[in-house]
Amino acid sequence: MIRVVLADDQALIRAGFRVLIDSDPELEVVGEAANGRQALDLLRRTRADVVVMDIRMPEMDGLEATRQISADEDLAGVRVLILTTFELDEYVVQAIQAGASGFLGKSVEPAEMLEAIRTVAAGDALLSPRATRALISRYLAQPTPGPTAAPQSLAALTEREREVVSLVAQGLTNDDIAERLFVSPLTAKTHVNRAMMKIGARDRAQLVVVAYQSGLVRPGSS
């Protein structure tokens, strides 16, 4: 069972998402929060797996809540799924840099919402190839404050791992990477997981950020 916390300052939106999520036998809403502070408290008490997080909330917004989740070792297993009105909102990029695993537009189809929760709960990033390229070209190519990969962590990558990270940064899935490199999907996944461990990335979304911020991959490369 995947345990979910909903964080949105609009009660009607939370109620709609609760009905949808609870309709899936593999998912369960274990709490609702109207701001980031409440969300943090709920996550510590409920040990949820995923928090569906709005960005704009009173008292503590979704960005700050995401930063605090990422910095809290007790919440290391929590995945943050950002909700936004605009798919390529600048705040979304900041949220991913802060540790979010992906994002959804509030106009998302019900089935996509449920699949998104499963995706981030499994440790995968919810970043489509199109969205990844758009994020990179629009924001990550610009100098932005935030953590960058330490040179020693990049140096720890094997040549194949560096190649895999560059493909992840282009928005390729494990299956895509396997096809490109003529290896099995399991082998591709293993390379991705080892690269994340060496770099200290929580998930694929942070691998994308690290790849570009460190200069390992540059916008427009393919």
List keywords for this structure.
222 residues, alpha/beta, Rossmann fold, Arc Repressor Mutant, subunit A, 2 domains, five-stranded parallel beta sheet, 5 strands, 52% helix
What does it look like?
Mean pLDDT is 84; it is low at 145-150. 52% of the residues lie in helices and 13% in strands. The chain has a five-stranded parallel β-sheet, with helices on both faces. Helix 2 (36-46) packs parallel to helix 3 (62-71), helix 8 packs across helix 10 (185-199) and helix 9 (174-181) crosses helix 10. It is built from eleven helices and five strands; from the N terminus they run βαβαβαβαβααααααα. It folds into two domains: 2-125, Response regulator (Rossmann fold, 3-Layer(aba) Sandwich), CATH 3.40.50.2300; 140-213, Winged helix-like DNA-binding domain superfamily/Winged helix DNA-binding domain (Arc Repressor Mutant, subunit A), CATH 1.10.10. It has helices at 11-22, 36-46, 62-71, 90-98, 110-121, 129-140, 151-155, 159-169, 174-181, 185-199, 204-213; strands at 2-7, 27-33, 50-54, 79-84, 102-105. The protein has 222 residues and is an alpha/beta fold.
Briefly characterize the structure.
The protein is of the alpha/beta class and 222 residues long.
CATH topology of the largest domain: Rossmann fold
Number of strands: 5
What kind of oligomer do you see? Answer: single chain
Low-pLDDT runs of 5+ residues are 145-150
Using only C-alpha atoms, the radius of gyration works out to: 17 Å
* Overall SS class: alpha/beta
| N- to C-terminal distance | 39 Å
Residue share in helices?
40-55%
Question: Helical region count?
Answer: 11
SSE ordering: EHEHEHEHEHHHHHHH
Molecular shape: globular
**Could you state the CATH homologous superfamily of the largest domain?**
Response regulator
Fraction in beta strands: 5-15%
Average pLDDT figure: 84
How many distinct folded domains? 2
Biggest β-sheet description? 5 strands, parallel
CATH architecture of the largest domain: 3-Layer(aba) Sandwich
How are strands sequenced across the largest beta sheet?
2-1-3-4-5
